[in-house]
Amino acid sequence: MAGEPESVVGNPKVAAGCTIEDRAIGQVTVLAVSGTLDVLSASDLETRIKATAATSPAAVVVDLGDVDFLGSSGMGVLVTAHSDLTPATRFVLVADGPATSRPLRLIGIADIIDIFPTLDEALSALSAD
């Protein structure tokens, strides 16, 4: 996965202060989210994850590295996606910092979904599987 060609799958989508951009890196689809992931934008992420899953990637990575607020609605979408996709498709998160990884750990989501501090670390872990 590291070193594999990267291709843009879809155009960035902006909704309610949240941007979601998807791209393929080998057999992995990365959904890069930025801005605010809350009740106003969570359904857009849910829609993008479902559309991505329909393409049957080996793995889906949701990169929350540029998210400045992660609300409970956004966390709910991530938990639902994990339960809907696994074990057929690996589902992991990239989150580092107080706005994302801290709430994911406090709520217990980090106990059920693999979380990596960087996209490179997530891709390396996926390629090792």
TrEMBL record:
NCBIfam families: ant_ant_sig (TIGR00377). It comes from the Bacteria. InterPro entries: Anti-sigma_ant, STAS_dom, STAS_dom_sf. SUPFAM superfamilies: SpoIIaa-like. This is Anti-sigma factor antagonist. CDD domains: STAS_anti-anti-sigma_factors. Residues 18-126 form the STAS domain. One of its GO terms (molecular function) is anti-sigma factor antagonist activity. Belongs to the anti-sigma-factor antagonist family. It comes from Mycolicibacterium frederiksbergense. It holds the Pfam family STAS.
